[in-house]
Amino acid sequence: MGERATGGTASTRTIVVAAENLREVTTDLFARAGMSAEDAAFMGACLVDADLRGVHSHGTRYATMYVRALRGGDLNPRPEIRPVNEKGATVLLDADRGVGHLVGRHAMELAIARAREFGTSTVAVRNSTHCGAMAFFTQMAADAGCIGFAATNAGVRMVPYGGADPVVALNPLSWAAPTDRGWAVDLDMATSVAAGSKLQLAKERGERIPFGWALDEEGNPTDDPDAGMRGVMLPLGGAKGYGLAVCLDILTGVLSGGRFGAGLGAPGTAQHFQAIDIEPFIPLSEFKARMGQLIDQLKASRPAPDSAGVFLPGEIEHNLKEQRLGGGIPMTGVVIDDINALARELGSGEQVVAVA
Known about the structure:
Elements: E1 14-17, H1 19-32, H2 37-52, H3 63-72, E2 82-87, E3 90-94, H4 100-118, E4 120-128, H5 135-143, E5 146-152, E6 156-158, E7 168-169, E8 173-177, E9 185-189, H6 196-205, E10 214-215, E11 221-222, H7 225-230, E12 232-233, H8 239-256, E13 269-277, H9 284-299, H10 315-327, E14 329-332, H11 333-345
Helix pairs in contact: 1-2, 1-11, 4-5
Organism: uncultured Thermomicrobiales bacterium
GO molecular function, one term: L-malate dehydrogenase (NAD+) activity
Pfam family, one: Ldh_2
């Protein structure tokens, strides 16, 4: 396959691939799983965007799992995303078991449109599914001249502060605002010390995880991703991460009438999307200029020893995307192998190949 590898076993080797090639093959997989051409193209773009930004934990490594779930009937390839309740700036959606990325796009587009009318908007979602990197949706809001917020409830893998049983979900959040630079300030974080999928990613790469991410089944700190996946994840900042996870479960699950807690409520995943139109407060140009002043002040800080300097949330990911659009995306070999194997299984002539 002409691979450009950086060592490791056959499965953990790194292959550099072109973003467009990866997007085309991924898009074809979703089309063959029953999605419309438009939705399949969006899924390809959304997952590859995560890889471009260095968020491989939520990128195309999920493509084969989603496609098999679509073909097996666990996900709906053509959902009827419908409003259950709506009043002014607020909407509750039923996602009809659609792939969460499509649902998130629909919900944030609706939030942005309502924010244009009312100044701000909140869209709650129930009966949804895994939606990948939340930053994609808040970036949509920032690109539209809004401040964006998004959250989802996730796998129940975390212990409550002071407890020993995994009854708290790893509920992530994202928050974004436009700037006068080429990138938005875009925070995307789990409420656990690390996202649960980062353990899976470490396993794929044959890497250990830092102590402090997870405990094994006996409650001992571990650097083994397998042991961590069988055990529990730890909350970010102790009691603070636990408290934030519970608050996000209220916003996503309790408020929407969807799933919440450890198996409470309706099945599926629950989500929460908000947009705040900036113009009713101050002109967008003034907001961006003020954001620029804030960025300049933060980046003027003297660097700490051995530090590369100060970066804003989303800045490193933006820089990586710019580099990888031209130089290719380093991908774990097992991910590319799985994508290519599924493409052959579905009768596709498309394959992901290494760049020269």
